[in-house]
Amino acid sequence: MAALFRRLLAGTFAYQAPSVLSALLALVTLRLYTGHLSTADYGYAENLLTAIIFTSILLRFGIGEAFVRYWFDDEDHLRRLHLARTATAWTLYASTVVTLVGLAFAGPLSRLILAHEDATLMSTGLFGLWVFTNLEMANALLRVEERFKLYVTASMANILLTVALTVSLVVIADGGARGYVLGNYGASAIVLVALWALHRDRVSFRPPRGTRVLLRFGGPTVPADAAAFALNVVDRTYLLHAQSADAAGRYGFAAKLSTVVIVAVRGFQAAWPPLAYSVTDEEQAARLYARVTTAYVAVTGTVVCGVLLVGRWAVHGLADNPSYYGASEALPWVALGWALYGLVLVLITVAGRAKVTTRNFPATAAGLVVNVVLLVTLVDPLGIAGAGIALCGAYVVILIVLHTLTRQLFVVPFEWGRLTRAVLVLTVVGVGGELLLPTHGAIGLLTRFALLCAVPFALLAANVVRLKDLKAVLPANR
Questions:
Q1: Rounded CA gap, 32 and 170, in Å?
Q2: Is 270 helix (H, G, I), strand (E, B) or coil?
Q3: How many CA atoms lie within 13 A of 227 on its CB side?
Q4: Span between the terminal Cα atoms of the chain, in Å
Q5: What does each of the 478 residues of the chain score in pLDDT, given as a tens digit?
Q6: Tell me, what DSSP letter sits at residue 171?
Q7: Residue 184 · residue 128 · CB < 8 Å
Q8: Alpha carbon of 375 to those of 42, 237, 243, 334, 370: distances in Å?
Q9: CA-to-CA dists, residue 425 to 118, 344, 354, 454, 460, angstroms
Q10: Could you say which DSSP state residue 412 is in?
Q11: Residue 455: is it exposed, middle or buried by C-beta count within 10 angstroms (0-12/13-18/19+)?
């Protein structure tokens, strides 16, 4: 078990490293961007970037998820190469067709998605869609073989090139929202071509063949994945149409500042499925799922607690324009929503392990419906904070329904006692500190930071975290 945890940690840290670099660079670039982009421009750009990811989920049709799952079913090298070529070819052809059709209707699409006609901005976004979709598949090739070094190198090169290009387009060339979107994906296109060259034996540019098995597994995951990610589209779109582009911009800024949680979730998202599917012993896998869930709640819960306690100082420190300061109202809720999304991933792998992916959609659909209802109910009285609360409520519903539908497929002995104690400790510390400690000034920041530092000790005292478990995964104990 300890060896599996070390493997998960190694993969998670490797996948997190680029995100950590991105977060550090954000300390500088966010002030630059907010100084040159109005909240409306930022709202348009962030809504388009979110729409790109959502559309990519649809057009990939679950091929990436199926590729990761079936890679571990066959150890024959030639058959694995054929699998990789089939998946990359499908992704390339699907993304190219959708992009070309989208370019023909760029103007109407911009009105539909952004409530604002800008065919050039929309065309830039469609280019980003093509790049992002194919880069996701290229990264999947690295993930299944756990080629951490190459993944980190490619991702960090992408980040550095993206920052350089985006700063040039937004700050120097004053390119506004168009420059922001093009900067995000122009550099990625270079990295994509480089990965294709390195993977030339695994990449095919011929029309895909033999996709039936992959589509049979991946197809049912699309409605579920789309509904889950739609939570990140619906709230911003609703704010854009029901409130204003400025409100959507502040909410998007809150989501950007949730990077500290997103770093953990995305690293876990990349490392967890290959490990979860590679453990063949059912009993060992069940215990692994349970332990990982407890550890995940303790770690990400601590991070969310920190966002709640000191988030408003981060907003003021990283926004060059005071109109962004209202983002602090939604920040803790958006951070919590991302943390809950990571738990959804654990339950999705339960269905994936059993190769029964049809049960994911009812859960995510229920969450999407709840999200819409809560948005309509809460945004008017609470503003962008209401949108954040709606996001969290939706993920809670997804978790409940998904657990109910999948618990018989693969029985996981979740550590409910430790999980309950973790939630109680983190809630008492976070909410208590928010209500009782100063909300501004150096004294407020220092007292809240001191309270945050006490969280690990409180988790130890509550027996959520055990010293013997920590020692077991340390390198010295190998």
A1: 9
A2: helix
A3: 24
A4: 12
A5: 566 656 666 656 565 566 566 656 665 666 667 777 777 887 788 778 878 888 888 787 777 777 877 777 777 778 888 888 888 888 899 899 999 999 999 999 888 888 778 898 999 989 999 999 999 888 888 878 777 788 888 888 888 888 888 888 888 888 888 888 898 888 889 999 999 998 888 888 887 776 777 777 766 667 767 776 777 778 888 888 888 878 888 888 888 778 778 766 776 766 777 777 777 788 888 888 888 889 889 989 999 999 999 988 888 887 777 888 888 899 999 999 988 988 888 888 877 776 666 667 788 889 889 999 999 999 999 999 999 999 999 999 999 998 888 887 778 888 999 999 999 999 999 999 999 999 888 999 999 999 999 999 999 999 988 877 776 666 544 4
A6: I
A7: yes
A8: 21, 11, 11, 14, 8
A9: 48, 22, 34, 11, 10
A10: -
A11: buried
Task: Match 């049709």 to its residue by tokens.
Answer: 61
Please report, to the nearest 10 degrees, the dihedral formed by the alpha carbons of residues 110, 111, 113, 118 taken in order.
Answer: 30
Rounded CA-CA distance 347/336 in Å is: 18
DSSP annotation of 219 reads T
Determine the Cα–Cα distance for residues 301 and 422; give it in Å rounded to an integer: 8
Burial class (CB in 10 A: 0-12, 13-18, 19+), 175: buried
3-state helix, strand, coil in the chain (%, to 5): 85, 0, 15
- 78 by Cβ neighbours in 10 Å (0-12 / 13-18 / 19+) ranks as exposed
Cα 415 to the chain's mean position, in Å?
25
- Asked if 231 contacts 393 with a C-beta cutoff of 8 angstroms, the reply is no
**Count of beta carbons in the 10 Å neighbourhood of residue 2:** 13
Backbone angles phi, psi at 355, to 5 degrees: 55, 35
Q: What CA–CA distance (Å, rounded) separates 42 from 236? A: 12
**71 DSSP assignment:** H
The residues near 207 (Cβ < 8 Å, ≥ 6 apart) are: 89, 93
Name the DSSP letter for residue 169.
I
User: Tokens 């920052």 identify what position?
Assistant: 163
DSSP string, 303-318: HHHHHHHHHHHHHHHH
Neighbours of 130 (CB within 10 A): 23
- Written as six digits, the tokens of 266 are 């995305």
Quickly list DSSP for 386-405.
HHHHHHHHHHHHHHHHHHHH
Amino acid in position 76: D
Q: Is 20 exposed, middle or buried (0-12, 13-18, 19+ CB in 10 A)?
A: middle
